[in-house]
Structures are given as C-alpha cells and as structure tokens.
C-alpha cells in the first residue's frame, strides 16, 4: 500500500520525481521559445505587403518589414522578398496610375530594407532617417511628375491650398490679412517638402513596428533600444550647421535665395526632429532614475511632445546633450545605447 499522503492530485509520471528531472523541466520552461517558421511564411507576408502598395502605404511598409525581418532573422534570402510585380499588378487591376504604383514600390522597398536591417543590426536612427529622406524625395518627384502632367507645379498647388487656408482662418477670426499671417504663409510655402517627409516618416515608423512584430512572431532575438538610450548621430550637427548656413545665404540673397532658404529650413526641421528624439531620451532617462512607472513616463513624454510643438525646448535639450552626454552613452562604439561604466 502506498504510504504517501493522498493530495487528490493525479500521480506524477514515472521518472519526473527526481531532482535532475525537475531541474531539466525548469530549464525547459525558462528558455525563450524559438518558433521554427518556414521561409514561405515570410514570403507570404511580403507578398501581402506588396499587394497593399497601391492601397495603404503605411500597411505596405509594415507587412513588407514584417516578412523581411522573419526571413533575415532565420537566414533566409531577403533579396527574394521583393515581389514588386504584385504592386504593379494590383495597381493596374485597380486602375491606379503609374505615379501611385511608383509610390507603392518605393514604400514597399523601404519596408524590406528596414526589416532586413533591424533583423541583422538592430534599430538605427541613421538608417531610419536615410530611408525617410529617400522615400520623401521619391514622393516629391512622383507628385512633381503628376502635377506636370496636369500643367501645373507642386509649388503652385501648395500655394493655392495655403492661400485658401489663410483666407479661411482670417474670415473665421474676423481679421484682415496682417503681416503675421503673410509671414506665416511665406514660411509655409518654404516648408512644403516637409509634408512629404512627414508622410514618409509614418511609413518608416510602421516599417519599424513591422520589423519588431516579425521578429517577435518567430521568437528571434531582437536587440531593443529603449527610448532613454536614443542618441543623436554625429552627422546631425553637420546637417544643422549646413542648414543654418543655407538659411543665412537665402536671407542675404533675397528672392534669388529662395531655393537655399527652402533647403535650409527643411534640413533644419529634420535636424530638430532628430535632436528632439535625443531630448525625449534624456527626459525618459531622468524619469527612469526617479523610479516613475510606465504610465508616468508616458504622461511626461506626452507633455514634452506638446511643449516641443510650440517651442524647441526638447530639441534644445537634445542639442545640449550632444556635448554634455548626460547619460554617459558609449558613443561611436555600437548602436546598443548602453551607458559607459
């Protein structure tokens, strides 16, 4: 007769009661599960992203990066994840014009490139910025071609739209056109390229999310870069200095310097956004040292975003951190963002 106390539980299988067996069992459950995924799944997600190329650009970037990250992390040939024919086919079947097809192809390619990069080297501010600028330039060229086919230019289209917005605001506010409104209108006319960069930023951000999602789907190791360790690339300071020089030349040259002024203002805006990311990293780092939880961090960052939209305070913090290095980051060694000891 079994002298063990009856606990009401089913008996443990034979061979699982020894300490060695329990240790093996604990190790098995503590290990991170790795999902074995056929490369076909990665290609399927890439094709799905390609099919969305002329329907929803952010979704096309997301699923392209999702599938490519799965392929790159599992040793698949990411170069095969370029079924551009799907973009062209869907564009033709849906009646989309050549400009829409070209924008879909460019967005899909950016998602593939970012997905492969994140899977192999992790998050990179430089890579994301270069893809955003390249994608924005493609959008500008395509829309310029579209406007030329209609007998107009991008500048004329934006000028008409901005004039309509200014007139609507002035009529609703019950005021006549003032010098401040005219200045705002002129600045907006110079910043129209940034609207394309904004659209490209949304697609690249979705591609970043897709890359992370694809890696999580297969249980692959994906080096994360917490926001508190985001750091400004060294080249941003060169971009900012060049932008300031172009703005100064544009101001001196008058109307002949509009192109230089436009390039300078838009480059300065790009540098401001990257420096703001650095500033958000400093704020998140300070909050983490104070022991505030995730909800408090989210609220503080939301307030910081609201402040940055009005005044360049957060980007100023990022600029100061470039030299002060408050977080003691190991700059120039690796993108891990780990602080120096």
Strand content: under 5%
Characterize the overall form: globular
Number of helices: 13
Q: How many structural units, i.e. domains?
A: 2
Number of strands: 0
Distance between the termini: 63 Å
- How much is the radius of gyration in Å? 26 Å
Estimated helix fraction: over 70%
Average pLDDT works out at 79
Low-confidence runs of at least 5 consecutive residues: 15-35
Overview of this structure, please?
The protein is mainly α and 341 residues long. Helix content is 70%, strand content 0%. It is built from 13 helices and no strands. Helix 7 (154-173) packs antiparallel against helix 8. The longest helix has 32 residues, at 258-289. Mean pLDDT is 79; it is low at 15-35.
Write the layout of secondary structure elements.
Layout lengths: L18 H12 L8 H13 L5 H17 L10 H10 L4 H24 L3 H25 L4 H20 L5 H12 L1 H26 L17 H19 L4 H32 L4 H17 L2 H12 L17
Could you list some keywords that capture this structure?
mainly alpha; 13 helices; 70% helix; 0% strand; 341 residues; 2 domains
At a glance:
With 341 residues, the protein is mainly alpha-helical. The protein is built from 13 helices and no strands.
């Amino acid at each position: 007769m079994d002298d063990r106390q009856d606990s009401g539980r089913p008996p443990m299988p034979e061979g699982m009661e020894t300490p060695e067996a329990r240790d093996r069992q604990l190790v098995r459950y503590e290990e991170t599960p790795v999902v074995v995924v056929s490369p076909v799944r990665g290609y399927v997600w890439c094709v799905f992203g390609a099919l969305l190329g002329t329907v929803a650009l952010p979704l096309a970037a997301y699923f392209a990066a999702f599938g490519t990250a799965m392929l790159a992390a599992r040793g698949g040939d990411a170069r095969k994840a370029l079924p551009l024919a799907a973009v062209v086919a869907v564009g033709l079947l849906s009646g989309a014009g050549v400009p829409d097809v070209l924008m879909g192809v460019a967005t899909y390619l950016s998602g593939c490139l970012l997905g492969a990069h994140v899977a192999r080297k992790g998050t990179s501010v430089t890579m994301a910025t270069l893809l955003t600028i390249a994608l924005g330039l493609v959008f500008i060229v395509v829309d310029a071609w579209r406007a030329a086919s209609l007998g107009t230019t991008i500048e004329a289209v934006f000028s008409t739209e901005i004039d309509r917005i200014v007139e609507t605001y002035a009529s609703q506010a019950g005021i006549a056109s003032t010098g401040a409104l005219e200045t705002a209108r002129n600045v907006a006319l110079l910043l129209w390229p940034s609207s394309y960069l904004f659209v490209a930023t949304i697609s690249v951000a979705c591609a970043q999310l897709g890359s992370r999602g694809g890696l999580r789907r297969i249980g692959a190791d994906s080096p994360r870069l917490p926001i508190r360790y985001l750091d400004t690339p060294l080249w941003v300071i060169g971009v900012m200095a060049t932008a300031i020089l172009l703005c100064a030349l544009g101001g001196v040259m008058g109307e002949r310097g509009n192109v230089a002024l436009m390039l300078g203002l838009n480059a300065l805006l790009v540098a401001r956004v990257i420096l703001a990311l650095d500033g958000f990293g400093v704020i998140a780092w300070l909050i983490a040292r104070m022991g505030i939880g995730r909800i408090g961090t989210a609220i503080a960052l939301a307030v910081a975003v609201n402040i940055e939209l009005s005044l360049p305070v957060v980007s100023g913090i990022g600029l100061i951190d470039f030299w002060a290095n408050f977080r003691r980051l190991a700059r120039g060694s690796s993108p891990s963002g780990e602080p120096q000891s």
